[in-house]
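Hi there, hope your week has been kind to you so far. Would you mind checking whether the tokens look sensible for this chain? I owe you a coffee for this, so here goes:
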Amino acid sequence: MHEMSRETLIRDMEGLLGVGRDDMDTLSITPRQTSDLLLVMVRAGSLQLVYPQDGWFDVVRVVRFWRCGLRHKLSPRVENWGKMLAHRVNLGPDAGRAALRIDEFFAAVYQASGPFALEFTRRGFGPSRGAA
């Protein structure tokens, strides 16, 4: 991912951790000009990366998500979100390390590599204290 996107991602994840509400606040991460999506949430003071499954034809990307999680010993879990399945891994409380893992998950799941820029959609949490 692009270096400026990585800095913004780390700052936003630190802000997300500072709010402290489990499963209420979400950071949606999308590479520019794509529909590829990963979500970052907080649970028990730890960052969680979530891949929402897009129907039963999305099995290949789900397998890639699980393989990447298992390769990094992150123990993926599946959750039922109404009519949708979501796959979740625990990234830990360190935003810098989590940003590296998110980059690896984008490369594995969507086979996106190189310095791509990200778009962020923040839901539920305010800007960091340093933002004006």
